[in-house]
Structures are given as structure tokens and as C-alpha cells.
Amino acid sequence: MLKHIIYPDGRFSIGTERFGLRDAYPAADGKQISPESVSVDKNSICYRMPYGKLFLRFSDFRDGKGLRLSVRLQDVNQAVEFHDFEPIAGAELYGADMLFQQGFGMAGPSGCLPIQELSGRAESFGLLSLFSQERAGSLSICASDYRHVTAGFLVAPDQGLFMEKKVVLSAGFNLEGVPGEMECLPELIFLESTTLQEGLDETAELIAGEMEARQVMPPAFHWCSWYYLYQNLTQGLLEEYVRGMRQKEVPFQYVQIDAGYADSPGDWLIPGSRFPEGLEKASRTIRDAGYEPGIWIAPFMVGEESELYKAHPDWLLRGTDGSLVSELNSFVEPKVWGNRDSHYYILDTSNPEAMAYLRKVFTTLRGWGFRLFKTDFMLWNMKDTSKVRRFDNTRTSVEILRDTLDMIREVIGEDSYLLGCIAPFMPFIGYADGMRIAGDVGAQWTGAFSPENMLREVSADTYFNQVFWQNDPDSVLLRNFDTQLREQEIRSLALLQAISGGIVTTSDPLHRLGEKSLKLLSFIRPDKEKHRPDVPGLDGTYQTLIMAHRLKQGNLLYLLNATEKDILEQVDLSELFGKSGQFCLEYEESESISKYGTCLADGLADAGNAGKTPVYGADRCSARHIAGRSGDWIFVSLKPHECALFFLTDQRLREQPGNLWKW
Prior knowledge:
Number of strands: 36
């Protein structure tokens, strides 16, 4: 049961008998508040401040498993312009040994951290979860609303000169110094759950409800020009590629033109050197081939070589000293996107004229037939209003972003697909149909553009997939040319991105792919249903990355060894799926079935598995995976970067499934 305790001096504690936080106190602009007097009752605290009265009020919901903390100012006798306010500051954590942090947007960092091993501060945005690997349960904290201000959480070690080391938590909001924001702060919400997975799921559902998340579009399946051609797509290449798609009969919903069509960002409607006849013809080329046209656009980006910059420098965001804010500089080769621009500036959409220009851009693109809009570099808008000079400095960056998104959604219509990229997550809820969650993936396993970030984020962010929007883990690379990825790595990443249940996209030239690659693309094609897996190893329980689906026709189990060492993994199927004794078939590209009735008994005792029942019998054999029937455990041996995918059914499958979701 989740409880709160209020002390006479205005401090308070929140938590369960197992874990929570204690001795919290409000803070403003990084300093604990200093009230002239404090009065308390069972559920509220009143701090009498020089500028008025500050009230904190606690209210239970969900039969004692939820708690709301509201903040209110009353009798304000002067303007209160806090930069940030923390209803909870310096709260000592007890009981929990792990925390889940959520990144601000694309690339995170998101995932689980051991609390006692923190050497510095751990920041989380939108929500935070505390849990223990030994004690069942979790405590999740989130805000009730993300329409006006940024909600953040900070966990850090705190140690005085003669005190034992402790870890403290602060939770609050960035008001950006905008007058009036203090008077409409969101509530902080606490949820007690049985497990971390359950806590994250419940918190995501709560946030989605409060923010009216869009859940109307079917899962996207499309081609994007970036991850093979990059900025080099031309009208001629577009015609060649869509012909190849039709020849291979790949049923993409959208064909999306990525960056490079404009000779300078900001001049979105001016025909560029790669599309001299303009985007309207490009859109018609895609539509005539039977696909919906998609377009990349960075609404806040303005290149210094653009006609927009030359005509309207007054529409751009400036620093407090009046100089232009340059978010990206490109002075050496290779130039970004092959453009001549050396500086890239930020469009200030708090300026009505700048907003009107963007409205014209999106209205025109919609009129030309585009129905998927990949809006990129959306974080560029997220400049603290107190640290820049906007046309309208009475609004936060969150409010300005949502005004812009509101305009975009109005113009492109409810039937268009809006994909966010390099974007803040929480303010996008209610507008986005899809969201890039991880950094760009390239054609190698290690080094720059490796899948390392995607592997972390695709598992950590799965809890809000198909709840806030459809997650986009990034493009699937299937080609066996112009790549350093080995065949097994291509397979592992493709299956992972598909089984994560979000968007599936590729940039490969389909007319150059072999039959094996095309068959894999057909296998990972999403269906019309929305699928969100469980990630049982998110808290570190397993050595491998595991995703599991409970489907009407049976269960899916995926395991990936993302490490550089061999791993023998063991999974309790009855615990994972609540069911035992199913047939277990390993997925292979071959249509024949060869993995029923094999087992891996050698070495189980050495691995600490003595006394556990293999999935099939006790005969010793050399197969690297167990598959079969009768038993609760499955043991999987995986080499580095190798994966395994299993279908678990009540009746034997007669053939290898041709699609991940239809069997």
C-alpha cells in the first residue's frame, strides 16, 4: 500500500514498507524553500512564503496503489518567476537498489541503473521508476501533464563530511522563467506496481490517457531513402527504385523522400538540384506506383544559404545578446547533406509570420499529395526561454513546440502519418503517430552508427510502444553488399526491430536484393494489429535481450546475444507465458521443419541447471537449441550477435511461418 507521511516542519515521505522516499521538501531555483511558517494536516501542507501561500496536497487513488501530489499558489502578492520548481527535493531513497531512467528524447539514454553504484547524477525525463531486484514491486513517478513545462527527475549521491552516503531524489519542472507557469503546475503521480514491467506499462497508459495519445494509424511499413542513398536521391533514382519495388511486389504503405531534396534547409518548396522539376512530380511518381508519398522536413532548421534566411533573418531565434543561435556548423568536408551552408539557424515559430510560413509549407506539401511527414531535428526548438530571445518570451519551449505541432496536425489532416525524429518525447504525445527512439544505425556492428544505442533504446522504450505512438527503432538493413554487417547480424537486427512491434522500414534498393533478403523482409512485415512485447530482461535478469509476445495463435520468444562472448541462456516458459507444455519451433529461413524434438542436455548441470526439466525429454544431443514439448524450461546457446526466435503453440505447426505475425 502506497502511503504518505507529513511531518510538522513541512517535510514529508512517500512510499511503501519496502521502498520509497523520505524527508522531502520543496525547492525553488535549486534552493530549499524557507517559509515564514508551516501548517499541516493529514493530507496537505501550507508554507507561508513572503510572496504568498504555497500548498502541497496529497490524494489517494487506485485503491491506495496510487498517489497524486498537487501544487498550488494562493494570495500571491508579487510576480513569481521561478526558473524551476521542485515539489520534491533532497528526498532520501530507501529500499530500492535499481532505478529506471527515461531519456528526454531520441537516443536516450534510457534503461536501468544500480542506485548504489551511481558516481554522479542520473537524470530522467517524464517518468522515473524505482525497484528492487530482491524485493518484488516498483514505484513509478510521472507528471500528469506535459503540455506546458518539462518534467524531470534527478537521482544523485549525497554525502556530508561526517554523514553516511545516501542517495537523494528530486522531482520537478522547468518553468524557463516564464511568468504564470507556477500557477498551473501538473500533478506528480506515484504508482505502486508488482514488477518494473507492470509499473512502466501502467504509467505509460496513465500518461497516454492524460495526454490523449493518438492510436489511430495502423503500424507503418515503408521505404526511406536515407540509409543507402543518403542525400543523393534524385528524380531519376526515385523512378528506378519504385519500379524495383513494384517488380518485387513489396507492399509498402509509404515511400519517403529523406533529406537532400532542398539545396538549403528552409527552402522546402523551392525545386533543388536533385529534383529540378519539384516535389509535386516526385510525389506523383510515388503515387502512380501505388504507394503513399512521404517527405522528410526539419521545420525549425534554416540554412544560411537559404532564400528564407536572406529574406527573413528576423524570423530566427537569437541569444540574449541578440546574436543568431547557430545549432549546427559545417566548415569542413564533407559538408552536411552536400549543401553549401556553413551555419544552420533555428526558426522561431513564436513569431506569427514564421508560423504562417510553415503553415504554407505543410499546406503545399499536403496539396502535392504527401501523406507521411517525417519531422526531424525537433529538439532544436527546445531552448530554455530564459536563455534566448524569442519573438514571444511569455511562452515556454514546450508550449511553442506544441503550438507548432498543433498547426502541422491541423494542416496535414488526421489521415496523414506524423513521424517525430530527434524530438522530445513527452510534448509530442497526442500529435505523433510514430517516433524515432534510437540513433542512426549504419552498416557495421561496432564504431560510429553501430546498433549499440538502438539495442538499448528498443528494449528500454518498448513499454510505451503502441501506447504513446508506434516506436521507430530505425531502418532495417537487409542488403549483403555495401555493408560490414555479417549475415547473422543482419538477421538478428531485422528480427529484433520487427518483433519490437513498431515501425518497419528499409532503405535498401529492393531491385538489387536477393531472394533470401526479400523473404526476410516479407517475414518481418507488420500486420494491421498493434503488438507490444514484454521485455523480461529489462531489469538485468537475463544475459540476453529477450522479447516475448502472447498472441492468439500462440507465443513468440526472441533472444539476442548482443555481447562478444558465447552465452547459454535459460528461460522459464511457464513463468514467462503462464503456460507450459507447448510445442516449440525455432524459426529458420527454410520452409522445412527440422528443430522439433531436439534438446540440449549436455552441460546443464555445470551451468547450475541441475534438477530443471528440459523442454523435451532427457536424451543428449548436439543441437545448440532446445525445442519440443513437455516441460517448462528452454535453454538456448548463442554465439556473439546471434539470435533465436521460437514459436510456441499447442499444436505442431506444419510449416515454417512465412510472416512473424501470421501463422
